Amino acid sequence: MKEASQKTCDVFKLCLAVGITVTFLCDFPSTQAASDGDSGNEEKGSGTHQKLLIIMLDGFRWDYYKSQKDELIAFPVFLQDGVQAEWVEPIFPSLSYPCWTTISTGVYPEVHGIIGNYMFDLKKEAMFDIFNHSTTRMEHWWQNSEPLWTTATRHKRKTFLRYWSRCDVAFDQIKPDTCSGFTEARGAAAIKETLSVAVENLQKDYDLVMVYSEHIDNVGHKFGPESPELKQAMRDVDSALSDFLDNMLDTGLDEKVNIVILGDHGMKGVGEGSNVTYLSLDDYINASDVYKVLDRGAVFAITPYAKRLEQVYEGLKGKEGFDVYRREEIPEHFHYKNNRLVQDILVVAQPNYFIRGLAQSSKQVPRDPATVQYWGGTHGYPNMTEMRTIFFAKGPGFKKGLVHPPIQLVDVYQIFAHLLDIPARPHNGSWTRVSGMLTSRSAREAVCDLCIIIFTMCLTLFNFVHYPGTMHT
Ligand SMILES: *[C@@H]1O[C@H](CO)[C@@H](O)[C@H](O)[C@H]1NC(C)=O
Ligand SMILES: *[C@@H]1O[C@H](CO)[C@@H](O)[C@H](O)[C@H]1NC(C)=O
Ligand SMILES: *[C@@H]1O[C@H](CO)[C@@H](O)[C@H](O)[C@H]1NC(C)=O
Ligand SMILES: *[C@@H]1O[C@H](CO)[C@@H](O)[C@H](O)[C@H]1NC(C)=O
Ligand SMILES: *[C@@H]1O[C@H](CO)[C@@H](O)[C@H](O)[C@H]1NC(C)=O
């Protein structure tokens, strides 16, 4: 009897020790990682992290590369050495700010709370407008989910970001080392310059560099995804990438840095001759019944006056060209509805339709200039081939010359955390969807897994010793 309780006690102590190790290794920065940061940038032995460069190319549709491969020089060279996901399925709505925030947090819009490029917080009477930076800069929009650069900064990874979303807004009072947030930087010259700034900073002691270009998206919106202008924009980016790859070779960084090139969403042609029908919201609702209409085109949210909700809903219900949902009717698989910023009515255009906003009312945000009759391209639609985007990667962390099955936008965050050897925050990605593209688990993950196995065995043993079975009774 005494012997048994002694055994129980020993096993219990062992479990406790392993449990503490698991907690320490898996939830907190390892002491090893922290000292890596201090001991300079030479990577020696196991457990040290590699540098990571993330290049986001806005509006890079999944098939742009494939359809223009023969004219491009740098992309094929890059992919020969790396991994290419067949495509990346974006989130709903497939719009820039929601997609960017999913990339940096790994969670769906209903979780991170950036559910559109235009949002309205009725409680705070606050607008969020992608092109009015004094609205997007308000901290309160951004406190739901911790972005990659904050976790990296907490774990002593030195971080540099350029034109990247609202990295200039503190999360939990933490800001990355260097960041300039999203601001318009149009044209081909901007991407060239941005990539050269990226190399400069990789040569310094930065561990994580994240840069952004809107060139392909701008051209896609204006001229359409099938236009000669878009093909030229692809050549512009290819040329910038070519200079960048040369620069990486010259500086000896080429083999050392993990590089990810990804997009946020695709683009659907909606220009003249595209078989897309344009509808006008004014034909279905009366502007005096609503308080706000947010966005237009593929998807928009309506805040009717409370007493007019049914009237507005009935005006939209059952019409050709779009689906309308009361807040509680929004499909779960959009992963959109469970957020307090969701408005009373959501309208989602069907594939061959574009819906114009209220023409004459300042309740419409944004208002299109009267001169714009047709767009070349747009995005925001749910579950549509044209909304898919890209994930290309190369470096010591990735396999070489691999075409990988499709992944989802929520999956990419965990890859970044893995490459930086920092613990990922809770997210909606699936590890089994991405692990096949990676060369190995990080040292921390390997030790962590081993500890969990020992801990489990330990608990089983403890149970066995403590409750030796039902034979006694
Ligand atoms: C941007 O938003 C702020 C705050 O809502 C507002 O005061 C300002 O007029 C807006 N600027 C423009 C150019 O719309
Ligand atoms: C054109 O759009 C209509 C719906 O507006 C759709 O039924 C039809 O299949 C489309 N045709 C083509 C060739 O895409
Ligand atoms: C819109 O609503 C206003 C106020 O209720 C009303 O005066 C007007 O006639 C309505 N317009 C249409 C086209 O129904
Ligand atoms: C997306 O569309 C495809 C084909 O149209 C369909 O088979 C699939 O069920 C849809 N998925 C979702 C989540 O709606
Ligand atoms: C997405 O992840 C968040 C954070 O872990 C979680 O709260 C939420 O339930 C997840 N959503 C889905 C659909 O799994």
Topology:
Layout lengths: L1 H26 L3 H8 L13 E6 L6 H5 L5 H7 L2 E3 L2 E2 L6 H10 L3 H4 L5 E4 L4 E4 L3 H4 L11 H7 L4 E4 L15 E3 L7 H16 L4 E6 L1 H9 L4 H23 L7 E5 L5 E2 L7 E4 L9 E5 L4 E6 L4 H8 L5 E5 L18 E5 L3 E4 L7 E2 L11 E2 L12 E4 L7 E3 L2 E2 L3 H9 L10 H4 L8 H24 L7
The structure holds 2-acetamido-2-deoxy-beta-D-glucopyranose (5 copies).
The site of one 2-acetamido-2-deoxy-beta-D-glucopyranose has 4 residues, from helix 7.
Keywords:
473 residues, alpha/beta, Alkaline Phosphatase, subunit A, Gyrase A, domain 2, 8-stranded mixed beta sheet, 5-stranded mixed beta sheet, 15 helices, 21 strands, binds 2-acetamido-2-deoxy-beta-D-glucopyranose
Describe the structure concisely.
The chain is α/β, with parallel strands linked by helices and 473 residues long.
Low-confidence parts, pLDDT < 50 over ≥5 residues? 27-47
Average pLDDT for all residues: 89
Share of helix, binned: 25-40%
The CATH fourth-level homologous superfamily of the largest domain: Alkaline Phosphatase, subunit A
The biggest beta sheet reads:
8 strands, mixed
Number of alpha- plus pi-helical segments: 15
Strand order of the largest sheet: 7-6-8-1-9-19-2-20
Structural class: alpha/beta
- Bound ligand species: 2-acetamido-2-deoxy-beta-D-glucopyranose
CATH topology of the largest domain: Alkaline Phosphatase, subunit A
Number of domains: 2
Q: Label the overall shape.
A: globular
- Radius of gyration equals 25 Å
Report the β-strand fraction as a percent range: 15-25%
β-strand number: 21
End-to-end gap: 16 Å
Protein name: Ectonucleotide pyrophosphatase/phosphodiesterase family member 6
Signal peptide: 1-33
GO molecular function, one term: hydrolase activity
Pfam families: Phosphodiest
